[in-house]
Amino acid sequence: MGVLFFIITSCKNKPTCQQGSFGQTWSTSLLKAASEEIDSIFKLPLERKLGIPRKTGLPQGYSGGHAERFTKNLTWNETFTFDYYENDAEPLVVDHFKSVLGQDFECSGWVYQKYCQAMWKLSGVLFELLAVCLGVDRKHYKKFFEDGYSIMRLNFYPPCNNSALTLGTSPHYDPSSITILLQERVEGLEVFSNNKWQTVRPRPDALVIIIGDTFMASSNGIYKSCLHRAVVNGERERRSLAFFVTPKADKVASLKNTIELMRLLSQALSTGSRLPKTS
Ligand SMILES: O=C(O)CCC(=O)C(=O)O
Ligand SMILES: [Fe+2]
């Protein structure tokens, strides 16, 4: 499948966007473009980054650390966070970039517009897979999350000369349903598994899928949300991109589905079989 998206061909002062066709390789190119574009934000002068509008108590905007959210101790990172809603009519991410960062960020906006669209689409496929694995209707979770929204966070971890005593992101569970994470070359993501912290090695063409609290709740605890953190590097900068998929704020999981899930699970456990399909 050929997919069209915008890439940067720009010089510093007058960015221009060029439409490119990337055929089969579109996803790898898009992941690369989204990783590389991170610097256009974090390498801005500090005053400019601090001038990005923020609403108290909300993660959206620029932040020098996750202190408010996960820990009292400052973490060694910078983040830039924005919302994504599926909307065919308007490029909302592009508009947001232009409004909070200025007209010269139109191209960056297009890169993240296309990235978010691709991740949203991918989340639909992942929800179908998760449903198939649980033996519930294939479209069950896709439908449940289709009127939801996403939060996109760009993470930048500068080198830290005290990396043994400092964390990039403190241990936490994501509150989202699933998080689609891209880490570029430098490793740093760790998950707590089998009673120890284990490194998730980065691959430029691979995405990490993290189960969050909301999916744990909507799968009745069958899928567990995953404790993770990011460590810092003594010599190298690190970048990661987290796309958090969340349900609509007032969405309520239906009790009928939860009960049905439990019935299927106990049936499968008692017969030692795989979970049967409901459709
Ligand atoms: O940078 C990473 O690898 C993890 C980031 C993360 O967990 C988050 O942004 O919620
Ligand atoms: Fe996380």
Short description:
The protein contains eight helices and twelve strands.
Descriptive overview:
There is one protein chain. It contains eight helices and twelve strands. It has helices at residues 26-42, 46-50, 67-70, 92-101, 106-134, 140-145, 213-218, 255-271, and strands at residues 4-8, 17-21, 61-63, 78-84, 149-157, 167-172, 178-183, 189-193, 196-199, 208-211, 228-231, 238-246. Strands 3-4-5-12-7-10 form a six-stranded antiparallel beta sheet. The chain has a four-stranded antiparallel beta sheet with strand order 6-11-8-9, with no helix packed on it. The chain is globular. The protein starts with a strand and ends in an 8-residue tail after the last helix. The chain binds 2-oxoglutaric acid (AKG) and fe (ii) ion (FE2). 2-oxoglutaric acid (AKG) binds next to strand 5, strand 7, strand 11 and strand 12.
Defining key terms:
globular, 8 helices, Gibberellin 20 oxidase 2, 279 residues, binds 2-oxoglutaric acid, binds fe (ii) ion, disordered N terminus, alpha+beta, disordered C terminus, 4-stranded antiparallel sheet, 6-stranded antiparallel sheet
Number of helices: 8
Q: Distance between the terminal alpha carbons, to the nearest Å?
A: 29 Å
Strand content: 15-25%
**What is the overall pLDDT average?**
81
Quickly give the structural class.
alpha+beta
